[in-house]
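G., the chain you wanted modeled:
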Amino acid sequence: RIEKRGSVLSHDEYRPLIARAGELYPGIFGERELRMYGDLFAQGSFLTPERLASIQPEYGRFFPRADIHPLIYIKDGIHFLHSLSAHTVDAFLGPSAGGKDSILDMVKENHPYVRIRTTTTRPPRRDEFQDEILEARYEFVTPEEFSELERSGEFAEVLQKKMQGTYRYGTSIQAVERALDRDLHLIIWRGDILGLPHLRSWMQHSHPEIDFFSVFVLPEMPIAELWRRMTRKRGVEQAIAWRFPKGLMEIHTAAQLVDGLVLNPSDPTGEPREAAAATLALFRRQSNGLGSGGS
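Predicted structure as tokens:
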């Protein structure tokens, strides 16, 4: 019934979507969390750190940093120190249709960075026709080639099977090293939150001299709006099967794993202009040093 109705859901139809998140991630969601996310959906409440703190208490540890930008929140205990290292690696994360790539594309016009390539078994999408963009973002391999890389220990982090639909994703050690060989200060890993602990651990072991910071793009909008964006961008079938449940899981667990948040409010133009401005301010502050204080 949801597939037939598409992006507009009745009160009775969104409940199974929330319940599916509990089915796919039983170790993350309990009955209380699922009920409260269902209430959030029904009420049309915006996703903000303050509102989410009632469901995931770790969001209560994030505080706005208006000295950087009103849409930037930093976790307490996180300190920005001006680094003498050649690079800073930023993990840039967020749910499907949350605006990650659009933000990075807009920021790059004013603050160049190197993007660590992702190795994947999925074929290029129809809109990924520009060779230059593909070369900068992905290395497309066969499932057999991916399995061989995994067996050989060539990945700094790799998602387990079925964590990202039917395809495999990972970050090769070679891709990280190639990015670090470039002469730009800022390195972006646009990865998956499930891989964040593994990449962070690898960086701390292999490159302890390099600063590593993680940012989550939090869509500052009702959950129903995020659902509509997912269905418009990737289709209802994918949204039901895994994108929406995974997005809810990412929103719930992000507060436990990341150092900072970028709020991405709805924009009438459809472009994340405010979130891009906030991200640009964060990147520039990182490059210049933020003094000694977190909030």
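Residues 43 and 222 are 9 Å apart (CA to CA).

Shout if anything looks off.
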